[in-house]
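SDR family NAD(P)-dependent oxidoreductase, pasting as requested.
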Amino acid sequence: MRLNGKTALITGAGSGYGAEMARRFRAEGARVACVDLNLDAARQVAAEAGNGAAIAVQCDVADGPSVAAMVKEVDAQFGGFDVLINNAAITQHPSRTGRTPEAEVDRLFAINVKSLYHMAAHALPVLRRVGGGSVINIASVTALRPRPGMTWYNATKAAVISITQSMAGEFAPDRIRVNAIAPAVGRTPMFSEMFKDEAEADAAHDRLVTTIPLGRLCRPTDIAAAAVYLSSDEAEYVTGIIMPIDGGRLVG
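Structure tokens follow.
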């Protein structure tokens, strides 16, 4: 019960890392707002978390009015929140830098980067009002050690790191800690979206595992464990860090 008494708003909570964070946060005693564009998926995760302390709210994080309405709903139901996890993101199809369709680049930046602006505009005032809290932005180890063919995705996650560090300095006087988690690639629904079929995904999985010293891809439970720590009182003196959860990829 390391998060007993805390309330967390988690975007992209309908699947993958976000869903596991929602489950783990409930298990640790927090109330959780499961926010996702796919409301049915968010409802399922909230139901799994159970006990009436998890709710599902639909939101398009790339749309300012949608974010404002979502924050208002979560605030009304829970009376505020003190943990904000900006997890919602998309990936790109591997391609050469100049051959990624412009519309895909625009969508990547709208969801992966501009969403942080919308959340800062609408969610951070709630954290100020309740007296502070923890913000966790989900970046990627590819922002620190980029892979070829993923230029624009890598760039969005590098922006997440820069935003995290800037926010940490800006909001420290408000007792709002801002950190980022940088996962290695994991076999999540996002992973499947990168490839044309399962055979291609399986081949990529086998290839990527060889680049990670600990010999496996990242699991949602790995990210959830890190998020619990950064949201807990144990991390009250931790802000502005980028925490790689990468199986040693940065040193391998």
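Note for the archive: Residues 7-245 form a domain with the Rossmann fold fold (CATH 3.40.50.720).
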